[in-house]
Amino acid sequence: MTKGPPPLAARGLKLRQLQLIVDVADTGQVVAAAQRLNMTQPAASRMLSELEHLLGVKLTARHPRGVNLTAAGTRLAELARGILHEIDSAATEVRDINNGKAGFVSLGSVSGPSLDLVLPVLQNLRIMRPQIRFDVMVDSSDRLIGELIAGEVNFYLGRIPDHVDATQFAMQTIGPEPMSLIVREGHELDVRPPSDLTETLRFDWVMQPRAGLLRRTVEAYLMERGLPLPQRVVGTASLMFTLALVSRSNAIGVMSTQAEEFFRSQASLGARIVRLPVAPDLMVAPYGLVTMRDRKLTPAAAAAYRAIAEAAGLTAA
C-alpha cells in the first residue's frame, strides 16, 4: 500500500508558526505580528515562507500597508486559532487533573454515611470543583471492599469485613453508626409508643439479609438482653424497599439513623415514618474511610477524600 506524506508535525510544523498566522490575521502586518511574538520582522517573514513551503500553498499577499491573507491563509488562521485554544484548554485540564480540580472519582459508602457525609460533600464539590466527575456506589461493606480491591472504587466509607486480610487496607475511623427502628405514621406503635423492644417483636421486621452486619448487630443486641429474635423477617439491602414495605404494612423497619432522619425530614423527602423510642443505644460497629494501603489516590480522589474526612472531623491521611 502506498504511504501518504508524513504528518505535518513530522515535517516540522511548529505551534509558533500557527500563532504567527493568527497574529498576521489579527494585525494585517508581519511587523506587528512579529512584535507580538517578540521576534524580528525578517525572522517572521522567513517563518511564514517556511509555513507556505510546508503546506505547499500561498498564505499571504502583500500590499502597500501590509499583508492580506489568501483564502487558504484565512482558513488556516481560523483553524490555527481553534487548535491553539484547544492546546491551551488541554494544558489547563492537565494542570487541574494534577492538582485535583478535575478528573474522575469513584467512591463507595454504606447507607447512613452516604446521606450524612457523602451527599453534602458532593454537593459542595460540584460547586467548588465542577470539573470533577463522580460515581457513587451505595452498598454493604462486604460488596464495597471487593470493588475496592478490583479498583472499581478509589475508596469507600464503611468497615473492613472480618473475613478479609485487614493488613492490605488503611482505615481512618469515623465512629459507630446509630440505628433506628421505624414504623409508618398511624401505626399502632405510633399511636401508643412501646416502652421497650418486647412490644415490637409481635410485628414483622424488615432489615438486612442474613449474615449482613446490620442484621447480626440487631440479633446480637436482642440476645444480649434476653429477648427472642423476630419470628417474621423480610431481608433486603434496599432502603427504598424497606420504606415501601413499612409505609404499606405494619412491619417495623431497621435502618441507620442518618437515613431515617433524611427520609423523614420535610426538607428532604418527607416520608411519613416515625422513629420508635426504643433501643437508643443500638449501633453498628464503627465505620471509616477505607483505602488500599499500597495504592495512591488520584489527585481528584484525594481531594474528595480530604473533603469527606474534614466533614467527619478527621485529619485526612
What does this structure look like?
It is a single chain. Helices cover 43% and strands 21% of the residues. The protein is of the alpha/beta class and 317 residues long. It has two domains: 15-97, Winged helix-like DNA-binding domain superfamily/Winged helix DNA-binding domain (Arc Repressor Mutant, subunit A); 102-302, D-Maltodextrin-Binding Protein, domain 2. The strands form two sheets. Strands 3, 4, 5, 6, 7, 8, 9, 10 and 11 form a nine-stranded mixed β-sheet that branches. Strand 3, helix 5 and strand 4 form a beta-alpha-beta unit. The radius of gyration is 32 Å and the shape is elongated.
What is the arithmetic mean of pLDDT?
89
Helix/strand structural class = alpha/beta
Per the principal axes of the C-alpha atoms, what is the gross shape? elongated
Low-pLDDT segments: none
Largest β-sheet summary: 9 strands, mixed
| Beta strand count | 11
Please state the CA-atom Rg, rounded to the nearest Å: 32 Å
**CATH level-two architecture of the largest domain:** 3-Layer(aba) Sandwich
* Cα distance spanning the termini: 57 Å
As a percent range, the share of strand residues is 15-25%
What is the highest CATH level, the class of the largest domain? Answer: Alpha Beta
Following the backbone from N to C, one meets helices and strands in this order, namely HHHEEHEHEHEEHEHEHEHEEH
Can you summarize this structure?
The chain is α/β, with parallel strands linked by helices and 317 residues long.
